[in-house]
Amino acid sequence: MSQMALTDTIDGLKVEAHRPWPRLVVSEAGWRAVAAELPAGRLTLLGLWGERSAAHMAVLDEDTAEIAVATIECPQGSFPSVGALHPPAIRLERALHDLYGLIPEGLPDDRPWLDHGCWGVRHPLGDRDNRDPKPPPYAFLPAEGESLHQIPVGPVHAGIIEPGHFRFTANGETVVRLEERLGYAHKGVDSLMTGAPLGKAARLAARVSGDSTVAYGLAFARAVEAALEIEAPPRAAYLRALMAELERLANHFGDIGAICNDASFALMHAQCGILRERVLRAAHACFGHRLMMDRVVPGGVSCDLPAEGAATLRGLLDELRRVFPRAVNLYDNTASLQDRTAATGVLRAELAHQYGAGGFVGRASGRAFDARKRPGYTPYDRLDFDIARFEAGDVNARVWVRIREVEQSLDLVEQIVRRMPAGPIKVETGGEGRNAEGMALVEGFRGDVLAWLRIDDGRVANGYLRDPSWFQWPLLEAVIEGNIVADFPLCNKSFNCSYSGHDL
Amino acid sequence: MRRTLLESLIRRPVTEAAPAPDEAALQELAGSLDRAARRRLGRSLSIREIDAGSCNGCELEIHALSNAFYDLERFGLRFVASPRHADVLMVTGPVTKNMREALERTHNATPDPKWVVTIGDCALDGGVFAGSYAVVGGVSNVVPVDLHIRGCPPSPAEILSGLIALVTGANHRKRA
Ligand code: SF4
Questions:
Q1: Chain centroid to CA B15
Q2: How far is the CA of B123 from the centre of ligand 1 (A)?
Q3: Residue of B4, B16, B51 for testing the chain A interface, max A β-carbons within 10 Å
Q4: Helical axes A234-262 vs A266-287, angle rounded to 10°
Q5: How many secondary structure helices (H) and strands (E) does chain B include?
Q6: Are strands A44-51 and A54-61 parallel, antiparallel or unpaired?
Q7: What residue's CA is closest to ligand 1, atom 6?
Q8: What are the pLDDT digits (tens) for A25-37?
Q9: CB contact (8 A) between residue A273 and residue B64
Q10: Euclidean distance between CA atoms A53 and A72, whole angstroms
């Protein structure tokens, strides 16, 4: 698609005041034409969401890093299904139907997704339908064949894990199929955001997935700033990046330890737990909150680095750089560990590309997309770092992506501390009386987080937050096939998808 | 290699002194612990964690309780995999409607006597998610709660001092 600008290839009417990327209202034919680019691999699906009588899809041209939103009005309450052509859209459309009641015509799987029949209402964000508050009973996909048996797990799990249901169909030890059922953590964030003042909506965004609170806070803030045409001051941009890299470090340490623990290697788990705790303590010392919740706000950040902050961070870097390489060495030199992680849970590159899989899931299977680089945002354009990319697609590659990203983040923190500009940390948002739309794509530790907002007089009129897990959960189903049941926890940890971020 | 790593782990012990039991928690508990409970508990507690739709922030800090700094097990507190082996249900989240039944079932599967401890502001009253069509809002709307540990999320030290209050509560009440 690189010959022509993305918007020239989409036939539609450009909406004013949608920033920074265009939104076009398209006809049914125009919608189908955009959808057809997805299975062809010319565009990547970034998100698909609804409102009362319209559906939107965000797409990315990976060659040019251009982004656009196509909108189809649905006066009859339906639109042509994208999932009918492109499987990565299926769950997004099932969720859209649950929430708004719009019908994706031709959707191959029309079972509910987030709606488990417990809300007391159907289509809570559309024209509420209270006549029959329960969808039909959920039917898992049938599995037939001699000597197949089913193993249902969850929604409550044996460990300290988020809620979700997994149904394994196994032939002896080998998994023939995994079917996920999610939605248990659905809290109705979209509806709570509707009509909320920006400050309250920002606090909600910060609680979509607690492990990515900085990434969500940043995505929300950047969408607000794009809509209202304001820019956070340079110092705020550096402080945001500092928090984002600390969040990435803490999560990657946690993940590396947890993956090794599931491969029965508790020493790495203990070591990584210490590294993670050190990062969280430094975050608390610098920003007054271990997870740095509510520190990124529309217009800037809510608190500045204290006088001793730079010294705290240098001390942290020294300690992490002293210990982490030994942990890496240990991982690399423990044959029994490699035995479990190498060639386990292989994700093929084609699938990673088809689903636009972000983060370590995509980058371990050859898809080197990183929103910090492209489309990119400040201050990363002024910082030196590489995108870690591996090709093997197995658990081991997903561990190595994290290891390389830890090293990159350590360098980034050092650069950020060294180059931190002086100055104010916040500007007024001043959205009163304005009606505008904004969008942002931000690189969280597990991949790109998308935020889309329509702002009306200082309040959120509509909002959509898309977790990277939407395009990773379905791939977990694919990679476990042919592996033994006992390797599921290991594969699952190496993906570490968010339940809350996905269920919203 | 393994030796150098072990050395780096133990050269300076990182485990911290026990925090004092939380005073507010002790007061909240005063009514819910009786002598039978005390006898059963001794100084050891088996905890079953259940995420009733949290944002996962609280889970991160519950996980941190097991790292070398807090070392939960030295207090006789341990996480178990089955509600049938649990004395304490530790619940997070605003209780989504989609998790309500699972929470009730887990509570019913836990043998008496049992205690319910909630972690986080969501579990107290729904927190920022209160008022949604999709949440019940507050664990005590579903099962009786003995102790609330507040915060968003509470730090591991705060969770720990709440739990220590739980095991020492009965003695404290006798002295009072
Ligand atoms: S209390 Fe805060 S951290 Fe805990 S689950 Fe609720 S929003 Fe997340």
A1: 20
A2: 8
A3: B51
A4: 160
A5: 7, 5
A6: antiparallel
A7: B122
A8: 999 999 999 999 9
A9: yes
A10: 9
CB contact under 8 A, A191 and B106: no
Question: Quick one: which of B140, B95, B76 has its CA closest to A163?
Answer: B95
Residues of chain B in contact with residue A155, where contact means CB-CB under 8 angstroms, are 99, 102
CA–CA distance from A9 to each of A6, A35, A42, A364 (Å)?
Answer: 5, 12, 11, 31
What residues of chain A lie within 8 A of the CB of B131, using their CB? 192
As for ligand 1, residues whose beta carbon falls within 6 Å of it are A 207, 210; B 54-55, 57-58, 92-93, 120-122, 127, 152-153
- Write the pLDDT tens digit of every residue in B34-78: 444 455 566 678 999 999 999 999 999 999 999 999 988 888 888
Give the span between the Cα atoms of A86 and A93, in whole angstroms. Answer: 11
Contact in structure between A107 and A90 (CB atoms under 8 Å): yes
Chain A partners of B67 at a C-beta cutoff of 8 Å?
A: 270, 273-274, 276-277
Lookup: tokens for A478: 């694919």
Q: Give the closest of B58, B61, B67 to A274, CB-based.
A: B67
Query: ipTM of the assembly?
Result: 0.95
Under 8 Å between Cβ of A263 and A257 = no
The amino acid at residue A368 is: A
Interval A147-171: pLDDT, tens = 888 899 989 988 899 999 999 999 9
Chain A touched by B109 (CB under 8 Å): no
Tokens of B27: 């007061």
Q: How far is CA A231 from the centre of its chain?
A: 24
Closest-CA residue to A108 (of A93, A123, A96)? A93
In percent, the amount of chain A with pLDDT more than 70 equals: 98
CB within 8 Å: B5 and A211: no
Cα(A407)–Cα(A400) distance, integer angstroms: 11
Count the neighbouring beta carbons within 10 Å of the beta carbon of residue A78: 16
Ligand 1 atom closest to Cα of residue A207: 7
- The model carries a pTM of 0.94
Q: How many CB atoms lie within 10 A of CB A89?
A: 23
| Residue A23 identity (one-letter amino acid) | R
Pick from A144, A75, A140: nearest CA to A111 = A140
